[in-house]
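Hi R.,

Here's the chain you asked about this morning:
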Amino acid sequence: MVNDYPGFVANRILMPMINEAIETLYNGVAGVEEIDTVMKLGMAHPMGPLQLADFIGLDVCLSILNVMYNGFKNPKYAPCPLLVNMVMAGKLGIKSGEGFYDYTESKKAEKVSKQYSK
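And here is the predicted structure, written out as tokens:
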């Protein structure tokens, strides 16, 4: 049984992780590929959190975080400014052709978006 709270159980765990990965990029701690590689190799995730955010849709991630932030009033759910800015700029991930990765040539996360390329 799962109790009635804002956000699904999976989103309560997943979205803060994705948001923290975006915050890590935003603060310059690590790059897109490094963040995703750490989670794939170090945590055995099939894809990194930034690639997953692109797959889900950055607008969807932002919406979920906003619902959770408004429901809980807990700053751990406050969306990273980078996520907000990307959505406002129309960079929504796979569905728009660009997010943390560039999907103009392939629907696979093979090329980091120019904005985050070294």
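One quick note: The chain has a mean pLDDT of 93.

Cheers,
M.
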